[in-house]
Write a structure and sequence with these properties.
It contains three helices and eight strands; from the N terminus they run ββαββααββββ. With 138 residues, the protein is an alpha+beta fold. A hairpin with a 2-residue loop joins strand 5 (100-106) and strand 6. The longest helix is centred in the middle third of the chain and has 14 residues, at 57-70.
């Protein structure tokens, strides 16, 4: 069995953003030479997420509206965590959207269902953050 590891780094210009990282993960898969196995993609920061969904701008807008209703950024004073920082909402949004995804690899390709893509979700951006890509298989 072979193993491959790579860290991707993202720095968004805005506090919140969704980035389609499918092509970067596919590039990692190609570099790994693994044809059958699994890939783990996970955010290495507690105010960011990795998830699978459709790459459709209306849906991304709906995520933003829904998450803001569940964990509004302001007023900052509503959160106990915000005594030292102002990002409690980002921690909660990450908890909802998830930390990682695992995708099967079949015949050297990501084994997706229709419309599935991998996304990096940023909820407290404007600084570099890492995403781990770990591939194991043969």
């Amino acid at each position: 069995m072979k193993s491959y590891r790579k860290e991707l780094v993202f720095k968004t210009e805005s506090r919140r953003k969704y980035v389609n990282i499918t092509s970067e993960v596919e590039r990692c898969l190609s570099d790994s030479g693994i044809k059958e196995g699994m890939v783990l993609v996970n955010a290495m920061h507690i105010t960011a997420s990795v998830f699978i969904n459709d790459d459709e701008s209306g849906l991304h807008h709906d995520f933003e509206v829904w998450l803001e209703k569940l964990a509004p950024e302001k007023p900052h004073s509503q959160y106990h965590h915000n005594g030292f920082e102002d990002n409690a909402d980002a921690h909660l949004k990450r908890q909802i959207m998830g930390r990682e995804v695992v995708v099967a690899i079949t015949n050297g390709k990501l084994d997706f269902g229709p419309w599935e893509q991998i996304f990096y979700g940023e909820y407290d951006g404007r600084r570099p953050k890492r995403v781990l890509v770990k591939i194991i298989g043969e």
